[in-house]
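Memo to structure team: turn this sequence into structure tokens by end of day. - J.P.
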Amino acid sequence: LRRHFPMKTRIAFLCAALLLAGPIQAQSVQPIERIAAVVDEDVILQSELDRAVANILAQYANRQNQLPPRQVLERQVLERLILVKLQTSRASETGVRVSDQDVDQAIAAIAQQNNLSPDQLRQQLARDGMSIDDFRNSLRDEILIQRMRQRFAQSRISVSDAEVDAAME
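Reply from structure team:
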């Protein structure tokens, strides 16, 4: 190329090649994931929203008429996901933690309340279209939020000595 074409011509060929290759490459790129919402420094992915909506639809499979229209349902579910993200973020910032053992105990309690073994609960979740990992994560978030609310409420409650004395009498 150097012997047959001057520098300007070589640059022109290079630019033309890049311009022609650019649209071809851009057309073959598919987005991996869409962002449904940005919450502080975190995001809610479209797949998370779709999964949450699918879980609700599965729960109401025989009662679809009790659900709002799909667009309204998606907006309500997204608002709920945003609220959960904000609350779990706040809980983490304030030092509230939930261990795997706490989640295991909660799963055992839910299974017992429904007269199921933990394995039967897993099977029921699978039939409803929910993975055990999604269930655990959801349950972890709920416990985290509950603990944060308890901590907040306890910090706001103050009982005076006079109230204690009155209650003792």
